[in-house]
# Entry
Amino acid sequence: MSEFKFPEVSDRQCLLEDYVKVERETLTYPNGMVSEYTTLSTVPRSVSIVATTQGGEVVFLREYRHPVKNAIWCLPGGMIESGESAVDAARRELLEETGYGLPDGDLDSSHWRLIGRCYPLPGLFTQEISFIRVDGVVQLQKPTPEPSELLESVLLTREQFFNEVLQWGGGDVIDGTCSSALFFDALSRGSL
# Structure
């Protein structure tokens, strides 16, 4: 592969709002072209979990997302806090959002597998998502989501999700992170 020559940044403006930063930079490309580029920075790292019950069902969520003003299908997940590993964040988020986890305290990290990582929209966002797979989860408690999280857990087999929810492309619109997670899940299971 050839080496890329990256553009030089000559000006930068920022707007900070809670945990979102909007950055506008003036770039000068190697060919002399000058352009403005806007980047959104949010939580630098997050996690999405493909959790399968002992009965073979995946723990999906229906969650209200205000920008699209609708409840959409997604998987449990959230931000990786400072000093936290992706696996620790996956354990915490799965339990908080769904009440599911592994029985017997699950002190063995080997049940939780990193199956992939991606930048979901690298032309605009800086966030990296880690995808974690865990099999054999059971309901340990009632969910304890954040007050601003409007969500419900739904157990479906992979086949039910593809046939009834997605209808193989003609059904519901889902969270893009969910699509990536299911892709990495299929790869990790040898289904692709």
Observations:
- The CA atoms of residues 67 and 175 lie 12 Å apart.
- The radius of gyration is 19 Å.
- The first strand starts at residue 8 and ends at 17.
